[in-house]
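Hey,

Quick one before I head out. I ran the complex with 2'-deoxyguanosine-5'-monophosphate overnight. Inputs first:
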Amino acid sequence: MSAVQDCLFCKISAGVIPADVVLESDSAIAFRDIDPKAPTHVLVIPKKHFADVTDLMSNDPDLASELLTLATKVAEHEGLASGYRIVTNNGEDAGQSVAHVHFHVLGGRSLSWPPG
Ligand code: DGP
């Protein structure tokens, strides 16, 4: 089985594995994180597989704009007008655990800085 065929988020995007979908666009899907770190914790992923932001920016930088557009729509949908965070973990040292690029949209509480 190839990396893409075996990819958890590709399976969520394809509807093979269920997820609590918040919003969707032609190129991206937003669904609630299974282990939320804030009252709102939504993941925004491209439907097409890219391993991480480095891979995405090397191959389809325009898609990054579409992902951030959907992320801001998620924030609006979730009523996060008082503030929210968009973060992506890129690679092992950053704590990336799923090798399909994703933006975390976090909000609904005061968020500390810097991250650990
Ligand atoms: P990261 O550690 O940055 O790669 O974030 C991966 C996130 O994916 C983590 O916050 C937990 C979430 N996650 C892992 N498996 C599942 C799943 O099966 N469903 C959903 N909705 N989220 C998942």
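The helical segments are 8-13, 53-59, 61-77.

Talk tomorrow,
K.
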